[in-house]
Every structure is written in C-alpha cells, then in structure tokens.
C-alpha cells in the first residue's frame, strides 16, 4: 500500500491509549488491562506487506503477540481461580479470541497476508488461478516525430520576475540587506565578567518539594511514591484486606509491619523492603537493584522486567512460588538450618537451552562448568 502508516494509524492510536492505561500508578485490574494492551499488536497482521517488511508472517505474528499477553492473562487465572469465576471465564475468553480464534482465521484465509485492490484500498480475497485468454495482436501506430533539439547555449537572458520573494528566500534577503552587527546590544563595563561582583558561578534554583510519607489512600490500601534517600519508611496500621503500592522510590528502605493482602514495587532503584505476611502475592515490576526480605509467608512472588534482585526468604516462606520474566541477576537467600543462622545463596537461572526432541521442545537452564 502507498500509505500503510495511515492505514494502521487508528489501530496504533488505540494501542497507545491501552498502553497508557497501564503506566504510572498501578490501576485496579492491572493484569486485565495489561493482557488486553499486550494482545492488541496481534491485530496488526493486516499490515503485513511481504517477507521483507520487517514483520513475521500473519499466523506467526498473531502467535508471538499473544505470547506477550499470556503472562498477565495467566496471572488473572491464578488470582481469581478460587475467588471469582467470572474473571476466570473472561481470561479464557480473551485467550480463545486470539488462540485459536484469530490465529486459525488468518491461517485459513490469509496465510501470506491480505491481498489489496489495484488502488490500494479495499481488501480482496485471494485470487484464483485462471487460464490466460489469448488476445489478438494490436496494431501499433507509428511514433510521432521527435521535437527539434534545443540549443546548447542561449544568448537570451531570462526575464527576472517582479514578484517579491517569499518564504526562506525573503528571510535570507532581509538578513543580507542589514549590517552584521545590527540589533546587537552593546556590552557595558558592569556587564563584563571581570567586573562582576558575584563570580561564584552558582545558578540558583528552587529545591524540589520533598515527597510525602506513606499515604493511606483509602481503606483498601497504602501508596508510597517518589521517596529518595529515606531509610526509615514504615507502615504500621495495616490489615490483611489492604494492599501496598510502592512507586518511583530510590535509595530508600520500607518496612511493612503487619499482614497485608498484596504488595507491589514498581519502577524503584536501589530500594529495600521488609515485610511480614502477604495473603495473595508480592510483585516486583520494572525495578533495578532491589532487596526484599520476607519475615513471614507469601504464597506467590513475581519478578517482572527487573535487573538485580536479592530475595531473603524465611523458613515459613520457603514454599513460595517464584515467577520471573524478562529479569536478570536474581539471587534467593534461604536459611541454612544450622545453629549459626547463616544464609545460603541460590542464583535463579536467566539463560535457557531449548532443544527439539521427540516432537516437542524441552527447556533446561544453562549450566556452566564448575557450577
């Protein structure tokens, strides 16, 4: 198509709006929104223009796009498996919409992409091969005589246009017609650096307002935002029905004294958190260099798009299910069980080997020599 970008622009706008709904402070039903937002790129299969267009073939494109959304869709299934069957049915319906719904449709009708009309407008069905019909040879008319050759040199001067110049030509003409120093201010003695009384070179600026302490937004939860260099943050008045959301903190430490429903740490750097008990899940998203200590129990710990995570588990939390995606440098510390109370460090693998055996792929972590 001549204007492929304009054709997919409405879809791109919807995808951008859906992604914006998942950014910033984590909204309610975040996993639902993230599942939908990450699955929308599958609809861009209609923009496939050939094997050299930079996209996978339509069927493979739909499958790859759904793999991005399946991580959060599975979170919905796990979270509401024993709580609300409507959410479980919603997650299953979303998956059926793409896999096998859209995938099978594209595979059956447009495995090589859509076929466009002659004007690049409407989509037409795949053309069927037909026997060519013989055509009678057309009688060609003799070509018209060639025009006379133009002279190489002309002695006539082209007439100058009396129309005033416009655009950038007018700007350059105005600049060239004025003296070079026109419009410049004269530097007086008191304006020179050697005569200035204040030569410290310090640029004054207003200091940013300090971030607020942990704030209880409602009965349902707490929010800790944009804390920098705070080592004594604490949440004391909490219960098992409340959630804790931490966003944009740097070089700080938070202690949660009590049982809460869930804890989410989002876009934090060099951040430490200590908590006792979590009813549902503890999540780390988009972080860099975090340390987490669980003093009680947590059934699920999720680490997503994080670089550098030191996780300390107590004896009661050794049965926790740890899920990681797009993360690296994850080390889990567990008690040794001895009287000295030392910790034993376990590094979670971040490299895997995928081998095709017996008609299916098997995945195993990479093991280095001496490990």
TrEMBL record:
PROSITE patterns, sorted: C_CAP_COFACTOR_C
Xref: InterPro entries: Adenylate_cyclase-assoc_CAP (IPR001837), Adenylate_cyclase-assoc_CAP_C (IPR013912), C-CAP_CF_C-like (IPR017901), CAP/MinC_C (IPR016098), CAP_C_sf (IPR036223), CAP_N (IPR053950), CAP_N_sf (IPR036222), CARP_motif (IPR006599)
Location of the C-CAP/cofactor C-like domain: 210-348
GO biological process, one term: cytoskeleton organization
Disordered as annotated region, ranges: 124-169, 183-218
Compositionally biased residues, Low complexity: 124-139
Gene3D superfamilies registered for this protein in UniProt: 2.160.20.70, Adenylate cyclase-associated CAP, N-terminal domain
Residue stretches of biased makeup (Pro residues): 140-150
Feature: compositional bias, Basic and acidic residues: 157-166, 186-199
GO MF annotation list: actin binding
Family membership noted in the UniProt record: Belongs to the CAP family.
Annotated protein name in UniProt: C-CAP/cofactor C-like domain-containing protein
């Amino acid at each position: 198509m001549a204007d492929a970008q304009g054709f997919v622009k409405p879809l791109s706008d919807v995808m951008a709006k859906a992604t914006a709904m998942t950014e910033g402070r984590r909204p309610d039903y975040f996993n639902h929104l993230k599942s939908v937002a990450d699955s929308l790129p599958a609809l861009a299969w209609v923009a496939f223009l050939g094997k050299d267009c930079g996209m996978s073939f339509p069927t493979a494109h739909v499958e790859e796009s759904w793999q991005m959304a399946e991580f959060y869709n599975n979170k919905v299934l796990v979270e509401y498996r024993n709580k609300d069957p409507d959410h479980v049915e919603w997650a299953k319906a979303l998956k059926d919409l793409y896999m096998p719904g859209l995938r099978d449709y594209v595979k059956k009708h447009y495995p090589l992409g859509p076929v466009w009309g002659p004007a690049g407008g409407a989509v037409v069905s795949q053309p069927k091969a037909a026997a060519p019909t013989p055509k009678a040879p057309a009688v060609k008319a003799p070509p018209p005589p060639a025009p006379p050759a133009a002279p190489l040199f002309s002695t006539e001067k082209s007439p100058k246009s009396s129309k005033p110049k416009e655009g950038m030509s007018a700007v350059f003409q105005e600049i060239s017609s004025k003296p070079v120093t026109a419009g410049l201010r004269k530097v007086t003695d008191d304006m020179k650096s050697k005569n200035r009384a204040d030569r410290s070179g310090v640029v004054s600026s207003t200091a940013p307002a300090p971030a607020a302490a942990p704030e209880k937004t409602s009965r349902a939860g707490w929010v800790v935002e944009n804390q920098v260099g705070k080592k004594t943050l604490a949440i004391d008045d909490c219960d098992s029905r409340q959630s804790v959301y931490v966003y944009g903190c740097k070089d700080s430490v938070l202690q949660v004294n009590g049982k809460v429903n869930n804890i989410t740490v989002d876009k934090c750097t060099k951040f430490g958190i200590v908590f006792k008990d979590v009813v549902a899940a503890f999540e780390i998203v988009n972080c860099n260099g975090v340390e987490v200590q669980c003093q009680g129990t947590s059934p699920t710990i999720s680490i997503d798009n994080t670089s550098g995570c030191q996780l300390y588990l107590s004896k009661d939390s050794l049965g926790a299910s740890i899920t990681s995606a797009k993360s690296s440098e994850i080390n889990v510390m567990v008690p040794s069980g001895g009287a000295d109370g030392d910790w034993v460090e376990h590094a979670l693998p971040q490299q895997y080997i995928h081998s095709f055996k017996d008609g299916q792929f098997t995945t195993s972590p990479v093991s280095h020599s001496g490990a």
